[in-house]
Amino acid sequence: MTEILHTLVTAGITHVVGLPDNTSAPLFDALSDHLWLRLVTVTREGEAFAIASGLWLGGASPLVVIQNTGLLESGDSLRGTATRMGAPIPILVTGRGYSKMKEAALTPSDLRERDLLTRGDVDSVALLTEPTLEAWGIPFERCQAEDDPSTVLARTIESARSNERPTAVVMARGLT
Amino acid sequence: MLTRAQVLDPLVQHRTDEIIVTTMGATRPWGRISDSDLDFASADSAMGHAADLALGIALARPDRTVVCLNGDGSMLMTLGTLATVVGSGATNYVLFVMDNGVFEITGHQSVAGSEQIDYAAMAEATGFQRVLFFEDARSYAESVEEILTQPGPTFVHLLVEPGSEGPISRNDREKGRYLRTSLADWSRTFKAALETKD
């Protein structure tokens, strides 16, 4: 977790806004008493995008951290705030269901038909995450087992800033 | 019960350098009487997210008071924001709920539970530092200066008469300057003004 925190500080992130899941919980724990990075814990993921957009309006540099289930909940908030504002907000999306998807030899490109979406051994949120980001016009990169999370996160932050739009990294692995 | 003008006129008179975030029924009326780069309309999208957007600004700028002019329908969409405000520790945040009991923009359909809901009690139970309720114009007008200057977070519940505001758009026919440009362009105008008025 030290590398992730170092990446955020080096990139000039001022606030982390979001809700923890089992993957991001260590990051939230580390942020709870961090010297420079301020943590804003929300009650529902849609709030995170409005708060992050407000932080950006006020001159801060926020990062949103949510699970992919919460991303699906956040559609209109993301669209109506950060996207419409052209706000350069990086989003760290932890990817529930990616390991099950891999075990089932499936990918986000598979046709999302009834039989697939109702399979007991598949967590449908993993199948829906990337097509949803594409549909919403959110550029993203998937961080896989062989990738370094800090490097990919730094690239996402830079991409959001250079393109002046919300940009996501989908963590299909743990943060460390 | 207050008219919308009875809510907004004292606010524009007492405002100094506060940031004002409007939404839904308050957006156009505020744009008619205020012409500040520190006004922000969270109006044409993301309904229900004005209160949390305003909180973000308040957290970024603890040196400024941020006022959100919310509606009752919008408040119900993000009630959890009451807890987020208190949990954030922001003291420079004022949340108005202009409670008219209806979705005015779409033609006065009733807001769910509007006859029973006590917004001030909710804010108090959540832990807002200051909670105020007004149903007459005089006591409200006498309190506005204090509302803007005392540490919060502050919650102001106002019973207001339904107005006749229709759907809000962004185009050059709008009277409020903050509605005559895109949300992306106004965001940059607002940011620049906040930076230069430090």
Major beta sheet summary of chain B: 6 strands, parallel
Spatial strand arrangement across the major sheet of chain B: 2-1-3-4-8-7
Strand order of the largest sheet of chain A: 2-1-3-4-6-5
Count of alpha and pi helical runs of chain A: 9
Ranges of chain B with pLDDT <50 over ≥5 residues? none
Distance between the termini of chain A: 6 Å
How many beta strands in the DSSP annotation of chain A?
Answer: 6
Describe the main β-sheet of chain A briefly: 6 strands, parallel
Counting helices, strands and paired strands, the structural category of chain A is: alpha/beta
Strand content of chain B: 15-25%
What's the overall geometry of chain A? globular
Helix content of chain A: 40-55%
Number of strands of chain B: 8
Secondary structure category of chain B: alpha/beta
